[in-house]
Amino acid sequence: MIKKMILTIVLFSAIPFFLWAQPIANTLVVHTEAGQDTISKYIYGQFSEHLGHCIYGGIWVGENSAIPNTRGIRNDVVAALKNIKVPAVRWPGGCFADEYHWQDGIGPRADRPKMVNTNWGGVTEDNSFGTHEFMDLCEQLNCEPVICGNIGSGTVKEMSDWVQYLTSDGDNPMTALRKQNGREKPWQVKFWCVGNETFGCGGIMSADFYANELARYSFFLKNYGRNSLYKIASGGLPEDYDWTDTIMKKWQTTDGWLQGYLGGYSLHFYTVNDWNKKGSATQFGETEWFATLSRTLHMEELVQKHAAVMDKYDAGKRIGLIVDEWGNWFDVEPGTNPGFLYQQNTLRDAMVAAVNLNIFHNHCDRIKMTSIAQMVNVLQAMILTREKEIVLTPTYYVFKMYTVHQDAVLLPVDLQTAACTSGTNSIPALSASASRDRAGRVHLSLANLDPANSQNLRCELRGVTGARVSGEIITAANMNDCNDFGKPETVNIKPFTSAQLQNGILTVSLPAKSIITLEIK
Ligand code: AHR
Asked: Given pLDDT bands bounded at 50, 70 and 90, which one contains residue 257?
């Protein structure tokens, strides 16, 4: 059975001279008979850190704000996020998590101690958004909380107390404290990150040291009542396969201890070419388009290589690969606080989102959750806010169009695609993934990464019985088009009609720089 997408790039150099004038064929086979793995809806997770205006202004405005809110949480942001079926939100960081002491964020807001957010702009954090407010956000979104515990500057007791405070209904100090703060019943919390980037801002640990800490902390994070924690280990730097090896070995050799408790292993990878010269989010040309897409495609290699290390210890794929920070990281918008990581979002961001989601789908046998960084006003955001105004970004629309894949069965695809080139840069023209939902509908998502040329695709839907195709498209006149405050949207979802289906053969003409999702039923 074919389990992985086989991507063949047909290079211009491999084509005989007499064929240069011919359009290069892109072909795809969708194995509709071969689906076995489910694309977990948690692949569509979000990340929200106490960073810039992600929480304050973007989500939390306080109960007395003139901006319509429910118990202090913006109604417009919640409504928009519900439309993309956000399944999980990771909080409170990121680097912030390892300076965060959760007990500072409970109880009457006026009495909560303040702190300096040393990672992000040195601003005062007044702790007005804490555990109860975050859990309220998750309840309003009807999504799972993903809590990132402080291993860098916290203690085992502090972290295990947090679990008890959230999830226990027993006769113990933390349950009593929670009740005193107005929440009678415990919450259910499944996903728990045992530290964040412990190689760096989470404590500058070595892999061996962290492996021991992971085991020690994990042991004391208990399951209360029917709550069952899915603990996520911190990964190393993106290419640090030895780190993965060390953690997986620890997992294997602590059978009955860590094995019983660990659920996932984290990978962080941001699309950045040069950390000292990240470039503008909006002012760019074809060179930067190619550089960004070529960099983001590196995710495929990272996933394959980390998964291969994990396979060595866990052939049964019990541990999920959790890509809980990913996305574009550009220069901040001119005139904004450099520590707030506020950037605009263009069609290029939409393309990066589509390419990564296709990669995650095609590896859903191992990837069980991801969180794009970040949900509102930070890095590759879904939503930008300015006081009472709100903008839905091109990335938001990709997440919206792709909701059809959530919890659907992955259909393996074989893609043969032309390359598109600019100067010395060459990338595959097309990216693809497919799934079948519970109602039997097949969805095929395609991205044409070529910024200048349309691409024709012949697609064989092996085993498909459906006869009707409909579609949606995200594209724009310019590769750096974006949605902005006070202006009509230039990038959003439109109907797509350039796909024909006859006898199981689908022909599609994909406009330059476009993302398409087709439904076959
Ligand atoms: O998302 C911004 C930062 O990037 C996070 O705080 C950290 O985990 C990562 O380095």
From this structure: low
- 325 with 335: CB under 8 angstroms? no
Cβ of residue 95 lying under 6 Å from some atom of ligand 1: yes
For residue 117 and ligand 1, the question of a CB distance below 6 A is answered with no
Distance from the alpha carbon of residue 94 to the mean position of ligand 1, in angstroms: 5
CA–CA dist 189, 197 (Å, integer): 21
Ligand 1 atom nearest to 373, measured from its CA: 1
Higher-pLDDT residue of 12, 286? 286
Nearest Cα to Cα of residue 511 among 484, 473, 480: 473
CA–CA separation, 377 vs 398, rounded Å? Answer: 17
Q: Per residue in 56-111, pLDDT tens?
A: 999 999 999 999 999 999 999 999 999 999 999 999 999 999 999 999 999 999 99
Index of the ligand 1 atom closest to the CA of residue 341: 2
pLDDT at 6 over 80: no
Each residue's pLDDT tens digit, 187-210: 999 999 999 999 999 999 999 999
Q: Active-site residue 325, yes or no? A: yes
Q: Is the CB of 138 under 6 A from ligand 1?
A: no
Supply 312's token pair.
């060595």
> Angle, nearest 10°, between helix axes 286-296 and 347-362?
20
Strands 425-428 and 413-422: antiparallel
Shortest-distance atom of ligand 1 to CA 200? 10
Identified catalytic residue from 49, 133, 197, 213? 197
Find the range with the poorest average confidence among 17-21, 353-357, 443-447.
17-21
**Nearest CA, atom 6, ligand 1:** 94
Q: What is the pLDDT of residue 253?
A: 85
| Cross-strand partners of 507 | 458, 500
Tokens matching residue 432: 């693809």
502 CA to middle of ligand 1, Å?
Answer: 48
- Tell me, using a 6 A CB cutoff, whether residue 92 lines ligand 1: no
Q: Are strands 455-462 and 26-31 parallel, antiparallel or unpaired?
A: parallel
* Residue with CA closest to ligand 1 atom 2: 94
Lowest mean pLDDT, pick from 64-73, 168-177, 392-401, 498-507: 498-507
User: What is the four-CA torsion angle of 181, 187, 190, 191, rounded to 10 degrees?
Assistant: -30
197 is catalytic: yes
Please name every residue paired with 193 in a beta bridge, in sequence order, or none if there are none: 148, 232
- Model pLDDT, residue 259: 59
Closest atom of ligand 1 to CA, residue 270: 4
